[in-house]
Design a protein that fits this description.
Strand order of the largest sheet: 3-2-1-4-6-5-7
Oligomer: single chain
Radius of gyration: 20 Å
Shape: globular
CATH topology: Spore Coat Polysaccharide Biosynthesis Protein SpsA, Chain A
Distance between the termini: 69 Å
Strand content: 15-25%
Order of helices and strands: EHEHEHEHEEHEHHH
């Protein structure tokens, strides 16, 4: 099984965190999350090769730390095209299957990835891990690599399940306490910081002072007060 990890350029990643993190902090957080994912995959038995698909220059050094390969993402193709690039490489090399993993899963660990692989049946098969809302797809295992089209985006969980059914397959859908959390919004940051365990991502948020600042802001920001006139009262 090959792991395919698409990683967006850091300068464009996590724009929804702009209200609480500046551009440099967003880049550093994305780098930390990517390393959490790559290190966890490298420690997972059954993952024979890791391929990072990206145009981010800093990814080369990160991939080298765990022995991963880097495939230059074709410009302008988007997430599904980047994943398809990695899948084609795996298919041409004779890989029996692929595990597609987003690079922003800060609680990722080898035990969680091993559980996904254990749930993945012999080829042909489709196994996916949903996001916390049960709508997106945070991990997708496909055997063979081109068994279904890649449909990441809104409601991708249902789309991938439907694609599997169209091929006569029953997709295995998993909710994982660790792999279902991706960080896109300030609320996701709060969820991450409430976890007892965490890797580089949590360490960065704490050592940088971001965790303390966010905690202080949540305490000092007054709740909005709504005052309404009683029915029949004067304005």
């Amino acid at each position: 099984m090959w792991a395919i990890v698409p990683i967006k350029q850091f300068q464009f990643a996590k724009a929804r965190l702009a209200p609480v993190l500046d551009p440099g902090q967003r880049r550093d957080l994305m780098r930390a999350m990517a390393m959490d994912v790559l290190e966890s995959l490298a420690a997972t038995r059954g993952i024979e090769r890791i391929v990072v698909v990206s145009r981010e220059p800093a990814v080369t050094a990160l991939a080298a730390e765990v022995g991963a390969s880097v495939l230059l993402e074709k410009d302008g193709g988007g997430l599904n095209a980047a994943v398809a690039q990695g899948a084609r490489l795996a298919l041409e090399a004779g890989a029996p299957g692929i595990l597609i993993v987003h690079g922003d899963l800060p609680l990722a660990n080898s035990e969680a990835f091993s559980a996904v692989l254990a749930s993945h049946a012999a080829t042909p098969a489709v196994t996916l891990v949903t996001d916390t809302e049960g709508q997106g797809t945070n991990c997708l295992a496909c055997s063979p690599p081109d068994v279904i089209p890649f449909l990441f985006g809104r409601q991708s969980c249902a789309a991938h399940v439907a694609a599997a059914r169209s091929k006569g397959l029953n997709a295995v859908v998993i909710t994982s306490p660790t792999l279902s959390l991706d960080v896109d919004s300030p609320a996701d940051l709060e969820t991450l910081l409430a976890c007892e365990h965490g890797g580089r991502s949590v360490a960065f948020l704490r050592s940088s002072g971001i965790a303390s600042r966010l905690a202080l802001e949540s305490v000092t920001t007054p709740a909005s007060v709504q005052v309404s006139n009683p029915i029949g009262g004067s304005a």
